[in-house]
Amino acid sequence: MNPVLTLDHVSYSYHTPSGETPALKDVSFSVRPGSFTSIAGPSGCGKSTLLSLIAGLIAPEKGCIRFYKSDAMPAAARIGYMLQHDTLLEWRTIYKNILLGLEVTHQCTEQKKRLAADMMHDYGLASFKNAHPSELSGGMRQRAALIRTLALEPDLLLLDEPFSALDYQTRLTVCDDISTIIRSRKKTAILITHDLSEAVSAADRILILTRRPGRIKDTISITFPKEADSPLKRRNFPEFSVYFNEVWKILKE
Ligand code: ADP
Ligand code: MG
Prior knowledge:
Blueprint: E1 5-16, E2 19-31, E3 36-40, H1 47-55, E4 62-67, E5 79-82, H2 94-104, H3 110-122, H4 138-150, E6 156-160, H5 168-184, E7 189-193, H6 196-202, E8 205-209, E9 216-221, H7 231-234, H8 238-252
Parallel strand pairs: 3-7, 3-8, 5-6, 6-7
Antiparallel strand pairs: 1-2, 1-4, 8-9
The protein binds adenosine-5'-diphosphate and magnesium ion (MG).
The site of magnesium ion (MG) has 2 residues, from helix 1.
């Protein structure tokens, strides 16, 4: 199967008046359609920089990043971005927040509105259509933020520590919730996290980065029995602690 995305020997440094900060060095990997990749690494190792490069917010200093459509020809990709803070606007209702991305990109057609409303229904937000963000729990807000992103029908979803602002218990259920939605819609996703248990529970591959400048230290493929089909279920399987220890050991080395 053709990849959705390839990174080929990508390096990046920040330049500030006080000097140069190399953030990433010689990073190469590719992402298959429908896969769930997690990127783990110490704080400040360049994880968010990597997502900004993939999103096209900044350009690589060296190397190149390519996206492919089904015909294996490089193409522009639609990218959905989800951050730690849900960035919902309090003065808009949940429905109007969900339509915001469509409005600013001039795609707010009847068909897209129907898709948004269907997702609100499927993911338990229909009765909160006219509520404002402060009336929702942290988990529901993240679900609304995900629907807003999915309404744009992105080819690739980038998630930058989207659960790290939540308390531990909420984080477990929201991660379960969001990952299950992403998988059920067969989306390709890249999840950045510094929480190894989150990476092991959600991903089918973990890329482990070194300290700054981030380089790929190792890649671990994650496979669980078919029944372990959600992050919460995975946590109850013996493979969970085996993978956790393996990733932990590589990070510590
Ligand atoms: P992570 O997401 O893994 O915590 P980042 O990608 O945010 O790391 O940052 C990598 C390194 O680049 C850090 O050392 C950070 O201080 C530095 N950095 C990030 N953004 C900037 C910037 N805009 N200007 C200068 N240095 C930056
Ligand atoms: Mg970061």
